[in-house]
Design brief:
This protein is mostly beta strands. 15% of the residues lie in helices and 46% in strands. It has one domain: Nucleoside Triphosphate Pyrophosphohydrolase (Alpha-Beta Complex).
Length: 164
């Protein structure tokens, strides 16, 4: 029997003119919440390639990889057990050319003003919200352990611990 392994996911901070690009998720986990664009790192690609590919696929925006900001080991708990273990690679991307984002298969796409992002805290994946705040405040990236508990449709941040 093969053991379940965590899933490597590139999540991307695409910032332009004081705004950050988010997607309203229509797939598990975190259905109905706003998130950073991103997705699984495929076997044949590097994290930087996955980041730019995912942003292009989910929003139609062309971008360049700028930096790896943080790594988050995230456990999503439901019913007292870990349902998802995701390793988030938080990447900062720069737009190649400014254009409107287009909704694709992942859900609604929208630019949010970083100065007003706190108003939407309850509508954003808890770990993504903290990563967005990190990028907005230009904080140095780190490694974090994270636990989020899902009860019904509610997601509660239990742990977001900086280890280094």
């Amino acid at each position: 029997m093969e053991k379940e392994r965590p899933v490597g996911v590139a999540v991307c901070g695409v910032v332009d003119n004081g705004k950050i690009l988010l997607i309203k998720r229509i797939k598990e986990p975190y259905v109905g919440l706003w998130s950073l664009p991103g997705g699984k790192v495929e076997k044949n690609e590097h994290i930087s390639e996955a980041a730019t590919r995912e942003v292009r696929e989910e929003t139609g925006i062309e971008s360049n990889f700028s930096e790896l900001k943080s790594i988050v080991s995230e456990h999503l708990l439901e019913g007292g057990k870990i349902n998802f273990h995701i390793i988030l690679f938080f990447c900062i991307l720069k737009l190649k050319n400014a254009k409107d984002a287009n909704e694709k298969d992942e859900g609604e796409v929208k630019w949010f003003d970083l100065l007003e992002i706190d108003k939407f805290k309850s509508e954003i994946i808890p770990s993504d919200f903290l990563l967005i705040k990190q990028a907005a405040n230009q904080e140095e990236g780190r490694y974090y352990n994270c636990k989020i508990r899902k009860t019904g449709e509610k997601h509660e941040l239990l742990l977001f611990e900086k280890l280094c």
